[in-house]
Amino acid sequence: MKLPPKVRRTVDHASIIDIDENEDSKKRIHLKLAFQDFFLLVVGGLIVAFAIAVFIAPHNIAPGGASGAAVIINNFIQIPIGVLMLLFNIPSFLLGYRKLGGSSFLIRSVVGTVVYNVSVDVIGRFVPPGGVTEEMLLNAVFGGIIGGIGVGLIYRAGGVAGAGGVVTRLLRQKFSWPISTISLFTNGVVVLAAGFVFGWKRRCTR
Question: Which contiguous run of DSSP H or E holds residue 162?
């Protein structure tokens, strides 16, 4: 049901907050849009966490970025994957705050990433040691597709899913390279490292 024009204008006006940044300018926050972004960030973070905890981590599949690096390091030291991802993401977010969009970028990225990182360890407690299937290819495919959907929601809300997203956007800003090319390079480095750590034969034949 559509609201009458006067009522709609009143609702829209009530959902806007003006914050004085200084004497000459104001920052306008639209609460409705902010809530939509927050919803996308939370849902996206939960979806990515589900993909990592259920399909990726149980089989030591490194998906790239901070999460892939965390999976690799977790193989050597028993620090939870979510905690490792947070340690990687904190310095990258501080850099992103300075270079990519200030407080708006920082808040969106922190919300999505904290939900993602914390949920990985929580969901992982309910996943059996071998995951839901022993088929490596199925785990890689489903983990990649489901995780990609979650990352897409986070990007749509104006955030990034972790340190890899910050690096990608910084390189794009500096060199004007396509995001697909940058992602292929940065994630490829992590995947190659995973091959050396976990073994190529196991990955290709299992």
Answer: none
Radius of gyration for the alpha carbons in the chain, expressed in angstroms and rounded: 20
**Residue range 56-75, pLDDT digits in tens:** 888 877 777 787 888 888 88
- Highest-confidence segment of 63-67, 94-98, 138-142, 175-179: 138-142
Taking a C-beta distance cutoff of 8 angstroms, is the pair 147, 52 a contact? yes
Whether residue 180 is predicted with pLDDT greater than 80 in this model: the reply is no
C-alpha distances (whole Å) from 120 to each of 115, 136, 177, 182 are 9, 20, 31, 25
Q: Per DSSP, which regions of the chain are E strands?
A: 16-20, 26-30
Which has the closest alpha carbon to 165: 68, 80, 75? 68
